Every structure is written in C-alpha cells, then in structure tokens.
C-alpha cells in the first residue's frame, strides 16, 4: 500500500472515530468544560476545571469533553492540550470572532443549540464571560445553577436518574441541590493537571 | 428618560452568624443593608439623571421589611420605589428571581413608561452569583453591558450608549443601543449623601407594593421555591484550612516576633530564604 493510500485510510479511520465519539457523546449526559481564552492563551481556570471534572466524571463513569469558547487561532491550537488534562473529546466549533467577542447572544445561542442536541452537564468558569454566559443560558434553558463560586463539588445519581450537585462555597459554605437535568456550575476547583511537572494554577478571581 | 435600578436588601455580612447547632444563617437581630454593589448602580443612574433628566424607579423583591431599603434608596434621590412582595416569591433562586424581576420591570414599563436603562449591581454579597443581571436581560430580550466601570457617553437622540467594561484581558469600550441592562462594577463611583429634601420626601413617600397578581405574574409555578431548580440544602461555616494555629505574644517589634515564630515552625523556610538571599 502506497504512503498516500495509507494516509487516506488513516484520515478515514480518524474521521470515523471522531464521528463515533460524537455519537457517543450525544447518547448520554457527559460533562462539558468550557475552554476560555485569557491574555491570548487558554485561560488557566479551564485546566483547573478540567482536572476537577475528570475526577468527578471518573466516579460517575461518564466522559469529559472540552468545548472551545471564543478562542483565537493560537489559543485554539493550545486548546488541543485539553486531552492531556483529561478530556476525551475537544469541540472546537465556537470560533473566536472579534466582532462578537462581547456579544453574549452569539455564544448563548451556539451553546444552547449544542446543549439541546447533546444534553450535557456544563461547567463554565467564574470569569466575567463565564458569569454572563451562565446567566443567559440558564435563563433560556430554565436550568439550575449553583450560586456561590464552587470550590468543591460533588454529584450523586438519584433514583430518577437525575443528578444532584452539591458544593461548598468559599465565603459562606452551602450545600445546593438541583432537580434539573442541566446543571451549570462555575468552579474554582483546586486540581492538579494530569501532566507530569505541570504548574498548578491558582484561581484568578475578578473582583 | 426612565431608568430602573434593581436593588436587594441583604444581611450585613460583617455581623452575620451561623447557628452552631442548626448550621443555618441567624437572620434575627442582624441588621440589613442595601447590597453595596447596588449602590454603585444607583449612583450611576443618579448621575445620568442629573445630566439628562428623567426619573429613576427603584425595584426590589423581598419581604415587607425590604421597604426600609427602598426608603433608603429614596433618600439618595430616587423618584419612585416598587416593592415586589408575596409569599410565593420566597425561596427563589437566580432563575425564579429573574422571572419575577423581569415581569415587574415589564409592569413598570406599562405603568410609568418604558425604561431606557436597567441598572443592577455586579452581584450581591449574600448570593454572590452575578447571574441575575444577565438573566433579566435575557428574559426582557434587551442588550446587556456587564461589569461596566464607566458610562462614557449617552446619546438620547440616537438612542445609543457607550461604556467601559472591565474584563480579564483589559478594558473594552462598547457601544450599544437603548434599551439595555447595565451591571455596574464596584468602586466606580461613590454614593452621594442624600439631600435633606429627599430625606423628608423618602420618609413620607408611598412605596408601591405589588404582589404576584399586581405585578401581572402569569405563572406562579415559575416563582419562588416552586420555580427554583436549585435550592439551598444546608448552610455551614467553612472549616479552617490552617492545620495549626499558634498564638504569638505581643512584642515591641511585632514583625520580628512573627517572623521568628514562623521560622521556628518552618525551619526549612528559613534555610530556603537564606539560600535565596545568599545570607549565611
């Protein structure tokens, strides 16, 4: 088999694998973590969320997908690192658009369409963009969201198949319970990336 | 020009306590204040009224005691106060709150004129969500400018507003059309001292009180605890993160005493710092 044929076969296999993976992610309520941009690169909070989410997903035996939100070209390339932090799949459809950078409607609609088709549990970050997007998306989807910034979150499967999140806030801790299928979290989970010798990032909260 | 400012009555966080047995927040005897973030929004609205005229309606949702906060807002110079109070609003999370407030703002628009700008604080100090503002904007289908640090220009003829927004990457200068919702960032202005005339007016003012029915709430099941997908299950004080606490006796040179105490329990830290600075 020539090199060209081998390469074509490899691409076909790769596409088939991606398609299969996409169908798999549609089938169940998997976790999505928003990968955001900060100062031209992936925002470090995205990796924090990814690490914590991976642990939680492992317990519940579901998979984790990284969703690239408003990333420039360079940051989009770096978003591929999500797999090394524990993502089973990276969605890179929501491409950065400088004209739409501050327009929440653009990203809200895109995210809502994706949520309606894939029914995931989403963990947006506690950034200015994450907060705005969470407010808009929850108001549209009539979804529950935990209020205080999360430092720890847990999730249990109840008898009816829904999941009930619980988390401890950092200022005045509280335990929240939600009955809705879609839970939107904002997290600041202190977690270590899976890479060896990786930096453990602190959470840059905007005040 | 008609501006609506959404405020919230919150317990004074400096004096809040958690019940040692039940682990719930003890609200009895804790003084309440206007959410400090909302005061920046109120002052921004007042500054715009000073410049362009018009009127300001202050809106809050809460128990009948929230009237006190509304009167306080009137003393700062607001023209009208609306209290949304009903038993069915109790226990609302962000989603149910946005529904009730958006419905009330629509009613305010019908009764007192459509609002050009809706102001909220960045977040509240008790909920800390920063989601009610964007949620109201989404429900009212108006544009939103969040984390606004400064309103640079307002053109009523062209119905546009230009504002500075703080984000992680820096400051964005955004221009949008009216009506829109603005969430004001903290430390962007200083709330004024109310005039004596406003204080007297506030003491005598009739607070407009709306129940769910008066506010034209169509679906009660979307309000309060019933309409809240998220409920607070338990409130508890966070556990201390420090493994050990040592009391350092007061000394003439407190800084040196503290450093000595730190090095006593962390000898490795002293060695590392000495190696870093090159001192023996």
- The gyration radius over C-alpha positions of chain A equals 17 Å
Q: How confident overall, as mean pLDDT of chain A?
A: 61
Helical segment count of chain A: 5
* Poorly predicted segments of chain B: none
Supply the CATH architecture of the largest domain in chain B. Answer: 3-Layer(aba) Sandwich
Low-confidence stretches of chain A are 157-207
- What is the helix tally of chain B? 7
The CATH topology assignment of the largest domain in chain B is Rossmann fold
The H-level CATH homologous superfamily of the largest domain in chain B, spelled out, is HUPs
Mean of the pLDDT scores of chain B?
87
Basic shape of chain A = globular
Please tell me the CATH architecture of chain A by its name.
3-Layer(aba) Sandwich
**Beginning-to-end CA distance, first to last residue of chain A:** 60 Å
* First-last Cα distance of chain B: 71 Å
User: Taking strands numbered 1, 2, ... along the chain, how are they ordered across the largest sheet of chain B?
Assistant: 11-10-9-12-8-1-6-7-13
Topology-level CATH name of chain A: Rossmann fold
Total beta-strand segments of chain B: 14
Order of helices and strands of chain A: HEEEHEHEHEHEEEEE
For this entry, give a set of tags.
heterodimer; A: 207 residues; alpha/beta; Rossmann fold; four-stranded parallel beta sheet; two-stranded antiparallel sheet; 38% helix; disordered C terminus; B: 280 residues; 2 domains; 7 helices; globular
Word description of this protein:
The complex is a heterodimer of chains A (207) and B (280). Chain A has 5 helices and 11 strands. Chain A has 207 residues and is an alpha/beta fold. In chain A, helix 4 (104-118) packs across helix 5 (128-141). Chain A has one domain: Rossmann fold, CATH 3.40.50.620. By secondary structure, chain B is an alpha/beta fold. Chain B has 2 domains: 2-222, Rossmann fold (3-Layer(aba) Sandwich); 240-280, no CATH class. Chain B contains 7 helices and 14 strands. In chain B, the strands form 3 sheets. Chain B has a 9-stranded mixed sheet with strand order 11-10-9-12-8-1-6-7-13, with helices on both faces. In chain B, strands 2-5 form a two-stranded antiparallel sheet. The longest helix of chain B is centred in the middle third of the chain and has 19 residues, at 94-112. The interface between A and B is large, with 44 and 43 residues. Strand 10 of chain A pairs antiparallel with strand 14 (230-235) of chain B.
